[in-house]
Amino acid sequence: MDAEHMQIGRVAERTGLSLRTIRYYGEVGLAEPSARSRGGFRLYTEADVDRLLLIKRMKPLDFSLEETRDLLEALDRLEDPTASDEQRDRLVERLDMFEQAAEARCRALRERLAMAEEFADRLRAQHTKHTAPQSQQVRNTKQR
After folding, report:
1. Which of 38, 54, 32, 53 is nearest to 1 (CA)?
2. Has the keyword Acetylation been applied to this entry (predicted)?
3. Counting CB atoms within 10 angstroms of each CB, which of 31, 40, 102, 105 has the fewest?
4. 5 and 35 in contact (C-beta within 8 Å)?
């Protein structure tokens, strides 16, 4: 194994993904290892790690595997120097659609988070309201 390749365990450490998840992404064609060792071990490059991190970042926004595959394909094709201007224009349009979808999903997540924080604040207030008098009663009892 050379310095530019990593085994799956190191990739798991770097990405925070489980070995099973990394293998699964390879099986479904989202992030296949760049190479294999003589012993058949999966070997990954820095570009592979970046790809896995991109997939990981799409998960909280509920992008499906098919949407993830579509975005990765568009990004790969945009890097292809043989792509025509017309192809690039279509790919950039797809990228724009993904950007808009990601922004909309982020807004929805922020709204849900705000509601969840409000709920937690109300629970905290209720907890404080109902535990403060008990604490005061315990102190008053001990002072007698």
Report:
1. 38
2. no
3. 40
4. yes
C-alpha to C-alpha distance for 93 and 70, rounded to whole angstroms: 13
pTM for this predicted structure:
0.81
DSSP letter for each residue of 8-54: HHHHHHHH---HHHHHHHHHTTSS--SEE-TT--EEE-HHHHHHHHH
What is the residue whose two structure tokens read 């790690």? 49
- The structure tokens 């060792």 sit at 37
| CATH code at position 12 | 1.10.1660.10
The structure tokens listed for 139 are 């102190």
In a domain, 37, yes or no: yes
C-alpha 144/C-alpha 55 separation (Å) is 64
In a domain, 69, yes or no: yes
CB 55 within 8 A of CB 30: yes
**Nearest-angstrom CA–CA distance, 112 and 94:** 27
Q: Which residue has the higher pLDDT, 141 or 45?
A: 45
Domain end: 60, 85, 102, which one?
Answer: 60
